[in-house]
């Protein structure tokens, strides 16, 4: 078994390193906040009454992923959020969350809003999966 690489001194290839591992810091003492993941589906009357588009309640037919993160005693200005295709990295002075997402997302299309009364950060991301043209055509 031989691994081909650009440099003979490297231990592993760049393809073998999972995306987001550069954020993984096991020595960081900040606690992990509570979070909830849900999926969102755009449904019209043609889906509800007639079933014309073939959508079902499974995550395979969902367009967006919504992540709600509880951040008590946090101000909006203290939040640092970095989103990549498969990783969400959130950091505050007291909390840290490195979340490997269940599906790839379009990191350029997304929105986040901080609900200050509930102390919740709500992040909505557009899913980017192969064969989505079958589900959404």
Automatic annotation (TrEMBL):
**Ranges for region Disordered:** 1-27
- GO terms (BP aspect): axonemal dynein complex assembly; flagellated sperm motility
Q: Show the Pfam families listed in the entry.
A: PIH1_CS
Ranges for the PIH1D1/2/3 CS-like domain? Answer: 32-126
Q: Per UniProt, what is one GO molecular function of this protein? A: protein-folding chaperone binding
Looking at the UniProt record for this protein, which Gene Ontology cellular component terms does it annotate, in alphabetical order?
Answer: cytoplasm
Q: What is this protein called?
A: PIHD3 protein
**Which organism is this entry from?**
Oxylabes madagascariensis
- Organism placement in taxonomy: Eukaryota, Metazoa, Chordata, Craniata, Vertebrata
Gene designation: Pih1d3
């Amino acid at each position: 078994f031989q691994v081909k690489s650009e440099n003979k001194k490297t231990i592993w290839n760049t393809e073998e390193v999972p995306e987001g591992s550069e954020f993984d810091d096991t020595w960081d003492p900040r606690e992990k906040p509570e979070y909830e993941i849900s999926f969102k589906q755009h449904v019209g009357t043609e889906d509800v009454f007639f079933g014309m588009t073939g959508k079902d309640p499974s995550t395979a037919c969902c367009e967006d992923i919504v992540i709600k993160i509880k951040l008590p005693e946090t101000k909006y200005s203290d939040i640092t959020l970095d989103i990549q295709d498969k990783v969400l990295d959130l950091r505050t002075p007291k909390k840290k969350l490195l979340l490997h997402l269940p599906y790839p997302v379009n990191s350029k299309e997304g929105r986040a809003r901080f609900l200050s009364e509930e102390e919740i950060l709500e992040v909505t991301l557009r899913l980017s999966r192969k064969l989505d043209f079958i589900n959404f055509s």
